[in-house]
Amino acid sequence: MGHQMAYQSLTRTFQRLHHFAHLGAIASWDQAAMMPAKGNEARAAAQAELQVLMHQLITAPELAQQLRSAEQENLDEAQRASLREMCREWRQANLLPSELVEAKTLAASRCEHAWRSQRKNNDWQGFLPNFREVLRLAREEAALLAEANGVSRYDALLDKYEPGMRSAEIARIFDDVKSWLPGLIERARAKQAGETVIRPQGPFPVERQRELGLEAMKLLGFDFDGGRLDVSTHPFCGGVPEDVRITTRYRDDDFAQSLMGIVHETGHARYEQGLPRDLLSLPVGRARSMGIHESQSLSFEMQLGCSRGFLQLLAPMLRRHFGDQPAFDADNLAKLFTRVEPGYIRVDADELCYPAHVILRFEIERALIDGEIEAEDVPALWDEKMMAYLGVDTRGNYRDGCLQDIHWTDTFGYFPSYTLGAMYAAQYFATMRRAEPGLDDKIGRGELEPVFGWLRENIWSQGSRWSTDELVRRATGEALTPAHYRAHLEARYLG
Amino acid sequence: MGHQMAYQSLTRTFQRLHHFAHLGAIASWDQAAMMPAKGNEARAAAQAELQVLMHQLITAPELAQQLRSAEQENLDEAQRASLREMCREWRQANLLPSELVEAKTLAASRCEHAWRSQRKNNDWQGFLPNFREVLRLAREEAALLAEANGVSRYDALLDKYEPGMRSAEIARIFDDVKSWLPGLIERARAKQAGETVIRPQGPFPVERQRELGLEAMKLLGFDFDGGRLDVSTHPFCGGVPEDVRITTRYRDDDFAQSLMGIVHETGHARYEQGLPRDLLSLPVGRARSMGIHESQSLSFEMQLGCSRGFLQLLAPMLRRHFGDQPAFDADNLAKLFTRVEPGYIRVDADELCYPAHVILRFEIERALIDGEIEAEDVPALWDEKMMAYLGVDTRGNYRDGCLQDIHWTDTFGYFPSYTLGAMYAAQYFATMRRAEPGLDDKIGRGELEPVFGWLRENIWSQGSRWSTDELVRRATGEALTPAHYRAHLEARYLG
């Protein structure tokens, strides 16, 4: 390669940021999974200091010039992609004045802290003033990003989590889903009404659940030399690609939540463990988007984990860890894990009802950011949409309605990623099955490498080299095509 | 207070360093207690980046002027002490050229890495070239520090771990110990030859050992809301004062090593947990010296933990966790925990033989650094002193002789701290018993607060406010007085 002074200098800066981010990631994992209560204040101060340092590094004045100079340098295609992602990360960090970042952090923290008791007390009126301030600042951020990026305000926030995605496209997709989802839910429930499902009988000792979870992770190819399983209140996938830390939580009356949570987080983990090793210190070596990340966890949990083949593998594992029960029959497990029951709470929702929760949130947050509605309009819209999409009455029940999630105390534009991820996952598996018609038989025999190999080659090893759209086209031969998602749901719930 | 611009600016810099050190400490603990193998390379790179950053901060050119200006500011006594410790930390970091620091790190890493197999292979000749280089660099460091601090070369290294202590003083103390220790060991062994000791019968399941350890920590006042117990290959006390992480290791054929290790580390931990909370971010709020730190672990392990009173508390705990055994009788435990058996290995040495191992190392490392002997002279001196102090023949046995410790691959001047700590601990307990003649009865009844209260008030809460000498004088009414140590050993082993 020719003269690349600016590019190499940028590479060094992003490596430094990568090293500091490593320490922050491990400290965050520790905070959630290991840290005793009294460590909190000192940890928060240390993490804040690290954030200040990293913000200083990425907003250093010389970077602007270096990014411009690097554009003129003799870079190969991979380096061009790397530079594009550096630019993206730099723009995200440099477009916002630090006073706005600080005001957002403070408002979010205040709103979140008060929300903890307000949710319990069903206190929407108490929540509203804090929420108005959070919304005001989010609109300010959106306006700044929108102007710089030449997109609408909501799209500017969406772009943080789904680079290149636009809300018009999402609205088009979600409108289609809305046209068939309520009917599908109704038919699935009618079908399931005549079925007998045997509930597993607990207790399920936590230590055995942990052993089962570890066995499932092993089956799913998690590399234990490069990661761990621990416990935290809110399960997550954290750590660093070289050392991925996933967590779960256990209830001794229910093994399924913990087990399928582990399967889900293992999908996230394998994405991280499979990222291109030689590029990990650069933005181009990281996961493509939140939707693509979710497509990995949902590939593992919904496409693979709830498939008949996988449940055939699971049945003897359950018997080995918990003793024999009629509920552990693979047919029964399939019924159990695909039970459709509309309810209030997104995180408890089944596969079929989940997108309704997401679409509702997308429509409300988009209208909020674009200024079509105000904070006080949320409950009425919530009630209306919950009734329309799920037939659930949430009037006056803020606790289980618009106060249930934590996202809007500081994040707008994230919700679509959940359902985009489910759609991508369905599209991957449709592609895999076309290429390998006997795939499901192989899964049932415990031969999972065809699935892992496809994901490794097409998604994990690609990092952020391509745009999301190009990544998906290269992997599946077509752009995002929600028809695969509908076909998957219809096959599973009506088939 | 008047104008304190420089002092306040220094305070902010040391707070930043404190926050970064927090992340480094948690990452180090994680590396030893949690991290899977493949995380190592990325972790090492992240930690190295942090070290570079912290070195930049403490060697920033403006600090020299700020430290001079602060001297002229209107500071109260506590701030003066704080400034003194800032100066001390600044000097340690600024006296050495960064090329020397780097060369030392590389040489130490090379020496340590090769040592792992050389020790196994009894390969002193293989070790020697690396050791010569390590020694050369240590002498270079010592010369620079000695010149700047106006002390001898070995004293300059000693001062890093024992601020204010001089090797002439240590030599005087150790010469005295040498005059009575071999005879005391002989008499103790003669006395013990006629005793019957019942060995505990294992196995001792690891999970029960862990529960016993946690119970011992609770009894010893460890604050579990501000710390944890985990497992690592080499037990240590790490983390941060607000969140102290101690570790142990378990063997299922021996509970004593893990249990007394936990008691030892809990002593270190309570020192950290008891440091002045409002000063933790400043050097003056940290532990005074390695010797004082060791005096806390040995106060817990040797003075308290092996006392008759404490063993009376331990006996029913052992029975509860492992079932009844004649070996768990308090009289038998006392014999078991004070068994004297000269051997090759320092870390396995009993309380009475331990100082001989330390004195030998002190004499050799002092002569090495001061240039009186060369690297190749070590084995002969080792053989001679092991025979003289412990009657142990190490000729040709480098593996269990001068190759047994890791310290000399990068650290000289640390060994005296171990025995100074034992002496301080004996002096504290002599002081406590004078003030409270019924102390041992109280300990036997589980009333340990008199011990903790004395240590908290006199040692823990004082941080680095006073010099070591003044700290010990204020606590015990006299300077370091090794006679208390001798009296303690004679009472325990001949009484």
Describe this entry's structure for a reader.
Chains A, B: InterPro entries: Peptidase_M32_Taq. Chains A, B: It holds the Pfam family Peptidase_M32. Chains A, B: GO terms for molecular function: carboxypeptidase activity. Chains A, B: It comes from Chromobacterium piscinae. The structure is a homodimer of 495-residue chains. Chain A is mainly alpha-helical and 495 residues long. Chain A folds into two domains: 1-94; 157-495, Neurolysin, domain 3. Chain A contains 20 helices and three strands. Chain A has helices at 5-33, 40-58, 62-72, 77-94, 98-120, 124-149, 153-161, 167-193, 206-219, 256-273, 290-305, 308-322, 330-337, 354-369, 378-390, 416-435, 439-444, 449-458, 468-476, 483-494, and strands at 227-231, 237-240, 243-248. In chain A, helix 1 (5-33) packs antiparallel against helix 2 (40-58), helix 3 (62-72) runs antiparallel to helix 4 (77-94) and helix 12 crosses helix 13 (330-337). The relative contact order of chain A is 0.11. The model of chain A has no long low-confidence stretch (mean pLDDT 96).
